[in-house]
Amino acid sequence: MQTTVDDTQLKSLIKEVFIEVLSERPDLIRNAIGDALEDFALARAIEEGDGSGNVSREEVFALLRGAS
What we know:
With about 70 residues, the chain is mainly α.
């Protein structure tokens, strides 16, 4: 026996599950949004870094030692 679900039923089911997750586990949504923002920021930093000059490994570690 095979069960089929049309697009309308699937959309309704996904909405229902999403609402249930929001109400029962808001931390999951919060973490997902946080991860997405971190990924976006990292991608943006990489894009900005592509346009800058290169520095040596020693320069990087010297700056890190100075920051601590």
